[in-house]
Amino acid sequence: MGKVYDTLNDRLREFISEQPVYFVATAPERGGHVNVSPKGYADTFAVLDDTTVAYLDLDGSGVETIAHLRDNGRITIMFAAFAGPPKIVRLFGQGRVVTAGDPDFDGLLKHFGPHPGVRSVIVVECDRISDSCGYAVPRMTFDEDRTLLDEWGERKDVQQKRAYRAKHNRQSIDGLPALEADETDPAHDRS
Q1: pLDDT value of residue 189
Q2: Are the beta carbons of 126 and 53 closer than 8 angstroms?
Q3: Which is nearest to 37 in space by CA: 62, 9, 73?
Q4: How many of the other CB atoms lie within 10 Å of CB of 101?
Q5: Which of 36, 76, 63, 58 is nearest to 174 (CA)?
Q6: Predicted confidence (pLDDT) per residue in 88-139, tens digit
Q7: At the fourth CATH level, which superfamily is domain 3-182?
Q8: Other beta carbons less than 10 A from residue 186's beta carbon
């Protein structure tokens, strides 16, 4: 039976830190596509306080999360145990996009490991923290992180990243605005 928590207690924090992958779900306010994105690299997720979490938003082909958060702020983050006891933790809340031009961007980056191609930091104020059984989640072993995204980011100079973001990250697949023109400039080569 699942349980709802008021805060991210030590047990939940430990569970979250042990998961090599997590999933982020968002949707536009009206119509459009629901988006679910898998996220890896353990050092891209941080618990900031008892009800606030954040993760690094790295360069990628889609920009749905940014567009949806700017549209309505709704977000759910899910962790599922593929090893150990069967468990799922969901963090429901209101998210905001913090880009290099925001005053708290540099302070947030200190919570994460170094990665090239940081587009933004997504900060989530959790309004519901819950767990449930993961009885149907298969057991799988974690071999290693794929390094392809970081390698791609390392190969791109500032101008190439700017051009990529301008072409692929200005709007969602449904045409919602995402990154502004001044937000496509990679201010930081690494987090």
Answers
A1: 45
A2: yes
A3: 62
A4: 11
A5: 63
A6: 999 999 999 999 989 999 999 999 999 998 999 999 999 999 999 999 999 9
A7: Electron Transport, Fmn-binding Protein; Chain A (2.30.110.10)
A8: 23
